[in-house]
Amino acid sequence: MRIHPLAVDGLTALAPTTVACLLGAEAATQGWPPLDAFGWTLVALTNLPLVLRGRAPVGVFLFVHVSWTLYVWLGHWPVVNSPAAMVALYTVAAARPTRITAVCAALLGGVWIYAGVHSDSEAMPSVVGQAIGYPLVIWRFGYAARRTAELTERLRAEQAERARREVAEERVRIARELHDVVAHHMAVINVQAGLARFVFDSDPRTAREALTTIGTTSGEALAELRRMLGLLRADGVAGADGGLDRDGPDGARGPAGEGGAALEPAPGLDRLEEMVERVRAGGVPVDLTVRGEPRPLPSGVQLCVYRVVQEALTNVLKHAPGARAAVRLVYRAGEIEASVTDDGGARERGKEVDPDRMPKPGGHGLIGMRERAKLYGGTIVVGPRREGGFGVHLTLPTSEQAARRKDAVTE
């Protein structure tokens, strides 16, 4: 739970204020003059400004020490307000450079010695030792806190940058695959156009069928092209190749112009059984269930489902050795659902599941799942299952109108 900094400073100020009140009430029993109304006012003026220490560390430090010095000059017990002075110095050390902290530490030591001299203390060597030792120790702790805060902020910035780069790399990889889909569609259009031109006079029926295929395929190609451009324009990742491997998972080849690989269609649902067989050969029992009436789907939708299932089964291989997995594909009106679940593996043998071996929500593969689902206006649920194991559930619309709805990603 995040607490507002002003509330933290208020609670911090409450501690020295309480100590000051308790010590002030005991001043008379320690041989010091009892506090009058003005004395209690000085106690309040010395301690309560610590509420603002986070906003003006140096200003609060100076105000506290001026009030404390006046309090000592009036002949009151110096110890009463010393905790507030030390907290003020710690705040300066934790928030300001060494040069400023050194001046403030010297000021604290000077007021400490002045208090000993003004009160005619018989233990001046001890007072001097405290005036040197306390500021040095507080300075050291404040410096450590400042360095820790700086390193934490730097780590957060690096983590944010790393997450941004991972998302950008996943988007570029997905865009390459969409490039393959578009290139394959264009190859089909080229072949069908040549066929229509060849049989236009001799076989009008065949020519019409070729033109129909051209119309359907070009529509899908334009839709995939819009998705690819939108993906690359997001967050300015266009051209952010980052030196990624040209070979995608499952041996998919790179874009057009690299050995003509774009003429080959991207993997689709017709290759799902083949991919499941490879996972079984890797030692993971996988049950594949298909419900509903299978029907032709846009190549991009098929590629999205294929890659999500592939990544989910890869996570089973990596993080749940010995587990059984189940892949379920459901065709519904206007959408398709794909789910991959496993039983955890270790639970079957009566062992505890190691949380460190579970896929992390920020993992590189899960980023790809999220980006693919978002690209096609779908929803994806990723996370541990209540009955044990891990699950991935993807729902994608199969029509252009449904795909324009707002996407959602749940973990």
Blueprint (SSEs and pairs):
Layout (H helix, E strand, L loop, with lengths): L4 H21 L11 H11 L9 H17 L8 H14 L2 H21 L5 H76 L4 H30 L38 H10 L4 E6 L7 H21 L5 E8 L2 E8 L21 H12 L3 E6 L5 E8 L2 H4 L4 E3 L1
Parallel strand pairs: 1-2, 4-6
Antiparallel strand pairs: 2-3, 3-5, 4-5
Helix pairs in contact: 1-2, 1-4, 2-3, 3-4, 3-5, 4-5, 4-6, 5-6, 6-7, 6-10, 8-9, 9-10
- Into which percentage range does the β-strand content fall? 5-15%
Q: How many β strands by DSSP?
A: 6
Largest sheet: 6 strands, mixed
Class from secondary-structure proportions: alpha/beta
The shape, in one word, is elongated
What proportion of the residues is helical, as a percent range?
Answer: 55-70%
Spatial strand order of the main sheet: 1-2-3-5-4-6
Tally of separate helices: 11
Summarize the structure.
This protein is α/β, with parallel strands linked by helices and 411 residues long.
Write out key terms for the chains shown.
411 residues, alpha/beta, 9% strand, elongated, six-stranded mixed β-sheet
Describe this protein's structure.
- The protein is an alpha/beta fold and 411 residues long.
- The chain is 58% helix and 9% strand.
- It has helices spanning 5-25, 37-47, 57-73, 82-95, 98-118, 124-199, 204-233, 272-281, 299-319, 364-375, 400-403, and strands at residues 286-291, 325-332, 335-342, 379-384, 390-397, 408-410.
- A six-stranded mixed β-sheet has the order 1-2-3-5-4-6.
- Strand 2 and strand 3 (335-342) form a beta hairpin.
- The longest helix is centred in the middle third of the chain and has 76 residues, at 124-199.
- The protein starts with a helix and ends with a strand.
